[in-house]
Design a protein that fits this description.
Growth Hormone, Chain: A, 16 helices, mainly alpha
Length: 449
Amino acid sequence: MSLSCLCHAAVAVLRRIEPTIVLQQLGSALSNTALQMAVRDGCLNATYPDVSPEDGRQKAMTDFFMTYNLILRLVPIVPALLLARCGDRGRRKVPIVVPLCGHLLLSVILLVVVVYRLPLEVMFGGAVVYGLLGGFGAYWPGVMTLAAISSSAADRSKVMMKVELLYGAAGVVGSLASGHMFLVYSATLGNGIILLAVSVLLRVLCLLQSVFLLQVNPQPSKEPEDTTCLLPDTSDEAPPPPPSPEAAAAERNRVNVVLLVVTALLYGAAVGGAVEILEVFVLKEPLSWSATEVGYGNAAGSLIFLTSFLGVMVFRRCISEVALILMGMLSFASGIYFMSFVRTTSMFYLARSLNLFALIPMPTIRSLLSQQVPASSCGTTLTYLQMALKLSGLAYIPAFTKIYQRTLDWFPGFVFTLASSITVLGMIPISIVSCRSRLMRQATRTQSE
C-alpha cells in the first residue's frame, strides 16, 4: 500500500513543471562549462598582430562569445513570439516543449564538435537551430507564464522566485559537478566527453517528461479586479467623452509601465554585459582558472538564485516590491564594481558574495507587469519583455566586448565598473515609479476622504 502511494506521489511530482526546470538547468549547467572549456582550448593558438599571446586568446574568445550570444538573441525573436501566441491560445506546453528540442540539439552539436574536433564556428549553426526553435526567450516566459496564471496577484512574486530558486539550486548542483566531470578521462575520446554525454541524457529525459508527463492545470484567479493596475483593462464599451479621474490615473499608470521596462532594459544590459565578459575574464591571468574552478565559479553564480529567493521571502512582508528591486540592483552594483579590482580567486568570491540579492529585480519586475494584464495575454506580455531584453543585447554585447578588448592593457576590469554605473542609472526610473505610486495613493486617499 505504501509503495503504491509513493508511486502515485512520484507520478504527481513528475506531472508538475518543477522537474522540467531542474532537468533542463542541470543539463545547461553541464554544457555551459563544457562550452567554456571548448572555447578556451579552441583559442589557445589564436594570434593577433601587435598583441601579446594572452591578449590574443582573450580577444579570440570574446569575439566568439560575442557572435554566439548575438545569434542566440536575434534568431529567436519571431519564433518566440509565435510560440507565445500559441501558448496564450491554450497550448501552454508548446512554448516549453519546442525550445527544449532546441536545447537538446544544441548539446548534441556541441558533443559532435568536441568529439570530432570540428571548428568552433560550427556552434554558430547550432545557435541558429536553437534560436529557430524559440530558445530561452520562449522557454523561460513559458515557464513563468505557468507560474503566473496559477497564482494570485499577492503571491505571484513569491511563486516566481520559487521558480528561480529551483533554477538556481539545479545550477549550483550541475556547476559543482561539471568541473569534476570534465576531468573524467576517456582514452579514446579525451576530457569533456562524459560531461557532454550526461548533459545530452539529462536533456533527453527533460524533453520526454515535458511531452508525456507534464500537465498544465492553470487556476484562474477569482480575486476582484484591481482597479489600480498599471495597464487599464480593455472592454467593448466606449469610454465616456469627458476625461474621468480613472482615465487620468490609467494614463499615469502607462508611464509607470514604460519606466518599469526601461529599468529592466538597463539592468539587463548591465548584468548581461558583465556576465558575458566574466566568462573569459576568469580564464586569463592572474586567475587562469581550470575546469574545476570554472565549475565552482558557475556554482557561485547559481547560488545567487538561492540567496535572492531568501531575500524575497524575508523582506517582501516589510518592504514594497519596488524597494525589493532597488535592493537587488544595489547588491549587483556594489559586487560588480568590486569585481573590477579582482586579482585572486578569493577576491572573486568576495565580490560574488556582494551579489547576494542581484537576481531579485528581474522576476519582481515580471511580477509587477504580469499583474496588470489578463491571463489570456500574460504569456505574450512576458515574451515581449523577454524579446526587448534580447534585442537590447544586440547593442550592449558588442559594446562590452569591444570596450573589454581595448582596455585589456591598462584596466581589464573597466567593463565591470561600466556595468555598475549602468545599474545605478537604472535605479532612477524605478525610483520615479515609487514616487509616482506614493503620490497616486495619497491622491486616492484624499478623494475618498
